[in-house]
Each structure stands twice: as structure tokens, then as C-alpha cells.
Design goal:
The chain is an alpha+beta fold. Among the domains are: 288 residues, Beta-galactosidase, Chain A, domain 5, CATH 2.70.98; 186 residues, Alpha-Beta Barrel (TIM Barrel). 17% of the residues lie in helices and 33% in strands. It contains 13 helices and 36 strands. The strands form seven sheets. Strands 6, 7, 8, 9, 12, 13, 15, 16, 20 and 21 form a ten-stranded antiparallel β-sheet that branches. Strands 27-26-25-24-23-22-28 form a seven-stranded parallel β-sheet. Strands 29-30-31-36-33-34 form a six-stranded antiparallel β-sheet.
């Protein structure tokens, strides 16, 4: 007798060879390990719909699929099935860089060809890929008569919940993701959005929408996260809250026109994704988003190298120096850059970021900001060629900086010239920035126009062998697999807010981010602040963590570009700096050892190509004590662990700089006892004893 799943695949295969009038109107497909089940069908009105089960529990109830178009009838009911195809796919692939060297890509796919029964008889396919860690589905429109240029006013994709889950969310802002996350029941989202973000009610943003990734925990203890993958030539998707019907509905980011997306057939939409797990740590370990992207398109990747860096950045946020040369203390001088290079060279930090180096900063927030920046002309007090020469002599590479002030047209006019300039200088990395309102007006950071712009920048950068770290970006959707020079993105409320915001990041922020924003992709959070109060510069601001937690962030907040963000003088003679010197930025494997969203997280990672392991454990405002089984180290070897822990009197507010350093041997089968202070953490470096 055939196994149940093989029999199912055989039956569907037989259906695909039947004539269209013999095809059924419903299909059931399971993931390779039979953890996730998708039911896809036409309802009584002939509209495509789906349901999702995790084990024997329905997690997504009947949810409809469709579109609204400008100048055309909606695409909804009245459909018939013209074809059905099913495949099983299994293939491992190797990352250029990442949390894990090898990724397993195993799924079962169902592709239904649909057509309207009545005129205009438009055709499309809906494709479902079912993984053990969730699903992805998308729409595919072939070239067809009467449907060449398509103006999409809304994509009407539904996600019907089966209860009122706890939800970790932020408002569906079309321009920034720099909001704190809220923790509420699903049914409470719109009321709190109106209360806490009243400006959204008077603006272009629906006041009951959320940005993705948005993560939930059902009353059955199942974790769900909703997002998208492979976002190209399309608007970003937010999700509207329908609390009466307990469902999300897609809401595309708009632009200057009535429609939100304009495309030509043939085209495909991004994948709509649902990660599903019975443990929160499994969401972090999931590879669903990258698996739904195409393989790497860059043939030679030798120049793509994860790295640590320092920068002339934190001092400007503290008000010590200015971005522009007209300021009292310009940060980006040749002399100051060399000071940072000397520090980096002495501390095993391979790169330096210099912001405020190019002309235009003196007027960048005024009427001229749309056209102010020149991306090839340094200020007179910054000799970029000398800085690069000096850095090369010391083994420290330069990371360039392109702040556009959202003058996108101006940036695109200079784009080829700017990247040719970086290639000529031998610079292989750039941090881009898009502060402010987008020019041309009427566009938003997360709409189709900017999605295409960010992608254009990455592709031009690849032609000139430049890695990109984007700030004020479009969210990551796994494109780093296809374009591995798109290294990291800001796209969240970063640590800079602690330096100048009246609403600093609370201790729980960093135990929510890994289960929400980080599920999209790598984060440029800029950890490593040692002077956590900095009263000398900002007496009303501080970083709301302990020092040990700052070290642990190098492991728990993933990025292939990690900054040692504090001032060189705050690191001088500091024993805890050794962890930043040692910690890796590229990994062979990563494992979540314990986790609860908004409460705590422990991750261990093995350095790529080396027998060294790094562990980070962080908590919210509450102290924690953990017993961690050492089951990740290989058998038969002893490792010396250097443990950077909170001091017995440490506290994120009362005594944040109290910490201890201890060396202990460990081997597989031992138990690690951790004690985390309120707002605290632990960072550990394991190296084999020869």
C-alpha cells in the first residue's frame, strides 16, 4: 500500500491529466513531514479560497483570494479550474553568508490554473508551497488578450483566524518601521492604534493596519507570523484588522495614483507567507522566507564579506560632532577618521563607517534637501583617498555612506557615477539612507516606486562589487538569497533612539524584535554601547540595557554587518571589549535554546569555518535564571567558555555597567547556569581546549 502522502500526490497527478470539465474544485496538500496541511478550493460562488491546518488544528479558516482593479471588474467569484499541477521538491542549498551555511528547501507545491467562466475570461494561477514550517502562496498572471497593463487598486487576500490571539504588532506606516511593538489581543489592535498613534487617523495610513512581519500566539499555543517573500515591482503589503470577523485582509501601500500597483502581464505577485510553529524559537530558525526566493544571481561573491565595523556615528547622535562641515565640530575629518581606524586596527575590527563626508549636509534638512547631496565630492577637511590609503595600511576597510534625504530622483541621476567612484576607490560597502518624505512627492518608502528603487540600487551596487546596508528601507523579504550583496537593513526602532528620543527603547524591545522584525531578515541595530547613561552628553537619555546585554546582542540580533557603536574612548582599557574583538559575524549553524516572545531569548551560533561557538541570552525588565543543557557542542571535546555576565547588583536602570567575566570548561552533557539581571543578558565565547 502506498503511504498516505504518496497516494495523495498520485491522485493529484492523475487529476492534472484530466480534461478541464472533469477537474475537482478542492485539493488537499500536506507538507513533506505532514505537519502543515493546505485545503485549496473554489467556494459556492466560484471564488478561490484556502484553509490551513497545523497538525490537527485549523490555524487559518476559510480565507478568500482576489483583486480589485482600476477600470476593470474585480477578480473574485465566477471562476473555474483549468489545470492543476502538483510537485514535490527537495534540494539543499549553501548560503553565501547567513545564520546557517546549509539550508534545506523541501516543499510540496500545488498550482491551480483559474479562469473566469464569463467574459472577460481573465486567467491566472494561484500557487501554494507547503513547508513543515509554514506556507507561501502567490498569484501568477500570464500574458493574455485584453489584460496587458494591469492597475491593481487592492489585492484582496484574506487570512481568517480561528480565535483572538495575542499579537505583537506595530502600526501599518507606509514610510517607516520605527515604531515600538505593542502586545495585545488581535481584537484590541485598532483601538490601541487610534489611541497611541492618533496622527495615523488624519493621514494616508489606515488606522487599523499593521506592518509585517506581525506575530501571534493562539490560545492553543501555536505561533504564527505573517509576512511576504520576494517583493519585486510591487507595493509592500500591510494587513488590515477586521476584529468583527477575526481576520486580516491585505492592504497594499499606495502612491500618487488611485491604483497602488501597475504591472504588465506576465507578472507574479510576492509570496504571501505564514510561518507556523509550536515553539517561538522555531520561528527564528525557520528558513521559509529565504526558501521562497530565487537562487543567487551574483556569480563572483568573493567580495561579499560579513564584517564588524566602527564609525563616526554615535558621537553625532550624542551631539558631540556634526554631520556637516559648517557645524562647530565636524565629525568626518581626515584626522578623526584616522583615530577610528587606529582603534579598529588595534581591536580586530575590519571596517570603519564615515558619515557626513560629502557636501550637502549643511542644507540637507532645508528647502534644498531634494537635490543637496553630491556623492562624489568630499568636504574640504576630509581627504577620502588618504583615509582609504591609511586604512589599507592598517587593514581597515572603508564603508561609504550615501544619505539621500529621500531625494530619490537626484540619487538615481548620480547612481552610476557614485558607484563607479566607490569601485575606483576600492570600497566594497555602502550604508544608504532615506530620511524624510520621498521625492517625487506622493510616493512612500514602502510603495511600488521605492520597492523598485531599492532594488535598482542593489543591482547597480552588485555591478560595482558593493554591499548595501539600507536605512529607512523597504522591509526585507528574503531577497538576500538572490542578491547577497543586500546585507542588512535598519527598518526598526534602532539603538539611535536611545540617544535622542523622548521615548527610549524599553528593555522588552529587544526580546520582541527577534520574533517580529528579525524574521524578515538581518538588522543593523548598532549594539555595543558601554557608556549606557552618557549623562555628560544627554542627561535625559540612556540605553535601557545592562552592559552584558549589549554584548549578548551580537548573537541574538542577527546581522552580517555588526557595529561596535560606542566611542573609542568608552572602550579604552575595558575588559568586556574582548568579546566584541572575538565574536563572529558569519555562521555555520544557529540554534534557539529557549525563548518566550517579549520575555527572554537564548541563541547559540557556531562560527562559519571555525570550531568556535558564541551564546547570547537576554531578558526583558525581569530577572531570569536558566539551566541550559550543553547539547550543541560536539562529543569528546572540552571547550573553555569565557562568560560575560551581569554582576549580582546589575540592573538596566540602577546599575547597568555591573558585570563579571569568568572562565569555565564545558563539554557536551554539562549544564550551564545563567542568571540575568533585570534588563540584562549573558554573552559567552566557547573555544576548544587543545
Amino acid at each position: 500500500m502506498l503511504p498516505r502522502l504518496s497516494l495523495l500526490l498520485l491522485v493529484i497527478s492523475l487529476f492534472t491529466r484530466c480534461k478541464s470539465d472533469q477537474l475537482p474544485t478542492s485539493w488537499t496538500v500536506q507538507s513533506p513531514g505532514q505537519k502543515v496541511t493546505a485545503h485549496v478550493f473554489l467556494n459556492a460562488d466560484g471564488q478561490a479560497a484556502y484553509q490551513i491546518l497545523f497538525g490537527d488544528k485549523t490555524v487559518i479558516d476559510t480565507s478568500l483570494l482576489g483583486f480589485s482593479f482600476e477600470g476593470q471588474l474585480p477578480l473574485a467569484g465566477g471562476l473555474m479550474v483549468k489545470s492543476a499541477e502538483n510537485i514535490a521538491f527537495s534540494e539543499p542549498w549553501e548560503t553565501v553568508w547567513g545564520e546557517d551555511r546549509m539550508v534545506e528547501n523541501n516543499y510540496h507545491e500545488l498550482a491551480l490554473g483559474l479562469e473566469e467562466i464569463a467574459a472577460p475570461k481573465r486567467q491566472f494561477r494561484v500557487v501554494f508551497r507547503i513547508y513543515d514550517d509554514g506556507i507561501g502562496f502567490r498569484y501568477e498572471f500570464p500574458e493574455q488578450e485584453g489584460l496587458s497593463s494591469v492597475r491593481i487598486s487592492e489585492e484582496n487576500t484574506e487570512f481568517k483566524l480561528t480565535g483572538d490571539p495575542i499579537t505583537w504588532w506595530q502600526p501599518g506606516d507606509w514610510d517607516i518601521y520605527e515604531h515600538l511593538y505593542n502586545t495585545t489581543r488581535f481584537s484590541e489592535i485598532d483601538a490601541i492604534a487610534k489611541r497611541d498613534h492618533p496622527n495615523l487617523a488624519q493621514s494616508y495610513i489606515p488606522n487599523n493596519a499593521v506592518n509585517t512581519p506581525v506575530t501571534m500566539k493562539t490560545d492553543d499555543g501555536i505561533y504564527l507570523s505573517f509576512h511576504e517573500a520576494a517583493l519585486y515591482n510591487y507595493s509592500g503589503m500591510t494587513l488590515l484588522v477586521d476584529k468583527d470577523n477575526l481576520k486580516w485582509t491585505s492592504c497594499l501601500v499606495g502612491g500618487p495614483n488611485k491604483y497602488k500597483v501597475i504591472v504588465q502581464t506576465p507578472f507574479t505577485t510576492p509570496w504571501r507567507t505564514i510561518q507556523i510553529a509550536d515553539k517561538p524559537g522555531d520561528l527564528i530558525e525557520s528558513k521559509l522566507i529565504v526558501n521562497l526566493n530565487e537562487p543567487n544571481k551574483i556569480k563572483n561573491t568573493d567580495w561579499i564579506k560579513p564584517t564588524k565595523y566602527v564609525g563616526i556615528w554615535w558621537e553625532m547622535h550624542l551631539g558631540m560632532s556634526s554631520w556637516d562641515m559648517a557645524g562647530a565640530h565636524h565629525g568626518a575629518t581626515t584626522e578623526n577618521a584616522k583615530r577610528y581606524i587606529d582603534f579598529a586596527a588595534a581591536n580586530n575590527i575590519p571596517a570603519i563607517l564615515v558619515e557626513g563626508w560629502n557636501t550637502g549636509w549643511e542644507v540637507w534638512w532645508g528647502a534644498a534637501r531634494e537635490t543637496c547631496f553630491d556623492f562624489v565630492t568630499p568636504y574640504a577637511d576630509y581627504d577620502i583617498e588618504e583615509v582609504i590609503r591609511y586604512g589599507k595600511e592598517k587593514g581597515v576597510a572603508l564603508i561609504a555612506h550615501h544619505e539621500t534625504a529621500s531625494g530619490v530622483e537626484q540619487y538615481e541621476k548620480q547612481l552610476d557615477t557614485a558607484f563607479q567612484y566607490l569601485e575606483k576607490l576600492g570600497v566594497h560597502a555602502v550604508k544608504t539612507g532615506y530620511v524624510g518624505t520621498i521625492f517625487p512627492k506622493g510616493n512612500y518608502h514602502h510603495g511600488q516606486y521605492m520597492v523598485n528603487h531599492y532594488q535598482h540600487v542593489v543591482e547597480v551596487a552588485a555591478q560595482h562589487q558593493v554591499m548595501v546596508d539600507a536605512h529607512e528601507p523597504i522591509k526585507d523579504t528574503g531577497i538576500r538569497r538572490t542578491w547577497p550583496n543586500f546585507m542588512a537593513r535598519e527598518g526598526l526602532r534602532g539603538q539611535e533612539f536611545d540617544a535622542w528620543s523622548n521615548d527610549m527603547n524599553p528593555p522588552e524591545h529587544l526580546v520582541i524584535v527577534p520574533f517580529t522584525r528579525m524574521l524578515a531578515g538581518p538588522i543593523d541595530y548598532t549594539p555595543g554601547i558601554f557608556d549606557l547613561k552618557f549623562d555628560k552628553y544627554k542627561d535625559k537619555n540612556q540605553v535601557n540595557t545592562t552592559l552584558a546585554k549589549q554584548l549578548a546582542l551580537y548573537v541574538t540580533i542577527y546581522s552580517p554587518l555588526q557595529m561596535a557603536a560606542d566611542l573609542p574612548e568608552n572602550y579604552a582599557g575595558h575588559p568586556a571589549l574582548q568579546f566584541i574583538r572575538d565574536v563572529a559575524v558569519d555562521w555555520d549553524e544557529s540554534h534557539v535554546l529557549n525563548a518566550e516572545i517579549g520575555d527572554y531569548l537564548t541563541i547559540v551560533r557556531k562560527e562559519r569555518g571555525a570550531d568556535r561557538w558564541f551564546l547570547g541570552s537576554i531578558t526583558d525588565e525581569n530577572p531570569r535564571a536558566f539551566s541550559i543543557p550543553i547539547d550543541f557542542l560536539p562529543e569528546g571535546k572540552t571547550y573553555e567558555a569565557t562568560i560575560y555576565a551581569d554582576g549580582p547588583d546589575a540592573h538596566w536602570d540602577k546599575n547597568p555597567t555591573s558585570y563579571t567575566i569568568e572562565n569555565k570548561p564545558f563539554k557536551k552533557g554539562d549544564t550551564l547556569e545563567l542568571k540575568l539581571a533585570p534588563g540584562g543578558g549573558t554573552a559567552i565565547y566557547f573555544r576548544p581546549v587543545e
